[in-house]
Amino acid sequence: xxxxxxxxxxxxxxxxxxxxxxxxxxxxxxxxxxxxxxxxxxxxxxxxxxxxxxxxxxxxxxxxxxxxxxxxxxxxxxxxxxxxxxxxxxxxxxxxxxxxxxxxxxxxxxxxxxxxxxxxxxxxxxxxxxxxxxxxxxxxxxxxxxxxxxxxxxxxxxxxxxxxxxxxxxxxxxxxxxxxxxxxxxxxxxxxxxxxxxxxxxxxxxxxxxxxxxxxxx
Length: 218
Known about the structure:
The protein is mostly helical.
């Protein structure tokens, strides 16, 4: 924002009051400010384009979020969230995403960051013919110029591990159903620890968030 507006904004934060346009009375306010930027703030301050006192006023707690390409482990959770939200907003019968489709997403660079992931998933959901997004749905949703770069962390062992986990899903759901959602009893029935059962449920939930929803509510 322009420097003159920055000074006014700083006054609002310091005094906790505003004056309406055309008014002459101060109005007390109680607000919290969440500010986000992809700019280099120290450089802007050094160049005189951002007030240093305002920066220190709004930087009480700093959270640095790396680009999506540096936190690929977040892609399944973000995909789950976007699918759930868009399915509700667009009234689409999409209830999850396949491991193959997730593996494809996890191998992409995402120069457009989280917005790019969101847009690709929305296009795939509109074009999909099945209730679960498949790898082909993601491929069809990619721009023609989009190149998929295989990331070294996502090898064939990744697919084998997830396929093995998915094959256990029916046994886990059956045990939880018989135990009325009690994870301790279900783990004993399956011959594993409660912590191991929870890890498996959490991993499966990343691929299909509705897999255990009716059980976790108990």
